[in-house]
Predict the 3D structure of the following.
Amino acid sequence: MEVKKDILWRVYLIFLGIVVFSILVLGKAIYIQTAEGAYWKSLSDSLHLEYREMDADRGTIYSEDGSMLSTSIPFFDVHIDFGADGLREKNGKRFKENLDSLSYSLAALFGDQQSKEYKKELQQAYNKKERYYQLKKNISFREYQVMRGFPLIRSGRNKSGFIFEDREKRLTPFGLLANRTIGLSREYVGSDGKMVNKNVGLEKTYDSLLRGVTGKRLVRRISGGAFVPIEGSEIEPINGKDLLTTIDVNIQDIAQQALMKMMIGNECTYGTCIVMEVKTGKIKAIANLGRQPDGTYSEDFNYAITKSEPGSTFKLVTLLSVLEDKYTTLDANVNLEGGVWKVAGRTVYDSEKHGRTQVTVKQAFELSSNVGMAKLVTAYYSSKPQSFLDHLYKLRLDTLTGLGLVGESKPVIPTPKSKYWSAPTLPWMGFGYNLSLTPLHTLMIYNAVANGGAMMKPYLVNAVLKDGQAIKTFEPVILQNEICSDATLRQLKSSLEGVVTAGTGKSLQTPNYTIAGKTGTALVANGTRGYADHIYQSSFAGYFPADNPRYSCIVVIKNKPYAHIFYGASVAGPVFREVADKLYALDVESQPLFTPVPGKDSSFYAWSGWNADYQKVNNSLKVNYTDSAGKSKWAYLVNEQLQPTTRKLPTSTDIMPVVKGMGLKDALFLLENMKLKVVVNGKGKVKTQSIAAGTKITKGQTVYLEMNIPTEPVMKLTAKK
């Protein structure tokens, strides 16, 4: 019995010990979880290391003159590790001593809250020992530089706890200018969690060069799941290369503004304008504009390299074919049937009514006759269509242009073996239907005619740069030495010039230089609705000056349904003419000097101003004028008996002078020296003055000047985001 009690006592004691031990273990576990959990978790996190990628600085895209078209701007996120040893040593002495001055500096720099609010925010984060507290996001490089000199922050990362993480943002300093061709460089995380790259244009085509080589950085995980970089562990990235393009900013701006003006005025759907340097094939400008749902325009798509039916600008190829094969001459006759002709069970119509019948081949081309071109193709190629197609292949209309931009459309040229080929296919191809080309393909043909028959490869990049030095250059490339014989080439040039002097493009003539080109007006389908909406594509392709071509240019514009103005000469032609005029003016020094025909000027004019200015202008321009103002400081210039004459302009301290016709600078100088207050409306020259000339005035009196050019609000153009 005693033995049994002794055994039970021992069992109970052991059991009690186990219970006590279990309670102690459970209590310790609870204590660790509640009281020391954050410490052990942070200690565990601090042992978790991994490598993160570091993006290289993306290369810059430059225009030919060195202007930045697309570049990367650094932005910074600011975090603070309030658990940093240097920040918390000596009971946080460094933090406490600098808190007031740091708060004041942050408030002064950002202005988003007062210094006391910054102080409260920082103090609370410090008390909580936040390990990766985000103070600011997306600060600029200038703000970053200023912050580096702030109290506490200038002590360095280990002592201040401040962590600056740099990122970059892609910017296009010229905004809408060539935006689609230059392209976008944008990345975002897709719905599947993977990184999506939305590059287009040059940014996409040359992405591997611009992007550079990614580096690596060792980071340590801290509480909250955030990662803090470990200094000295970086594998530095290799920055991207730069691109020097062929784009000329001035020419691009001219093309963009001319296109925009027509697009807005005619409410067009989309349009493109390309300017190419004849001798080299360099693309100097490439503007693309599309109408947005809110009525604005942006570079939303690259229409220059998107295929569509070319319409009448393709008639140059038809004319080249029949002339090169010696089937006809420019002087040969063709019956236009009054502009209506039935063939293969369908009817060909000329887009502009003319009622003509017997005309020469050249006249048919100048009139842009669909009937004339369809008849030529049918007469000479209906039994051997492959002969006609061979000309298209020689002109490289069955391949990509070679420009190199990702997304370029490949032309569609039907063949007799295709299921889409039928009896009407060939005649309709003769005037630019039943085939699809990009505007750039069409421009290459016109540029080849301007270049003496040599077809140049179009290109957009002059060189790849590294640290400002060219490591790869691109030179002009001849794709086809001769697109036709010299005899055919002379006839093509004559015909293109005839379009502007006597044909559908005669409204584009200018007395200063000659233009050669071809209008185009094509009826285009509207999806499943077909041609019911009467949507026309207007185009003009050509080159200038015709006698010594420097630039070739094509304008293609898709009009809205039922547009009142839709002919190529009325929509695309004015854009071409404006571009040509302004480029001719830019290059005026290399042009022949314009000598006006001498004659008497009968126009009326009356201008007032500083007499010395009139004398200087008249003498510099060698104008024969009569000086009746003598040594008077102020004068007015009038036309007396067909002769420019300066007269003395009376001025007095108490009599209102004549300021009508005076420039604003002179008017302000004169009137304010007379102690008058001047209120101006508009710009240019003075049109009316509120106080009549000769009226007695008093010091401090207000005079209102109405200028001849009213001030208008400036229209802002923004690229689509």
User: Anything to note?
Assistant: The two ends are 95 Å apart (CA to CA). The longest strand covers residues 68-80. Residues 422 and 622 are 70 Å apart (CA to CA).
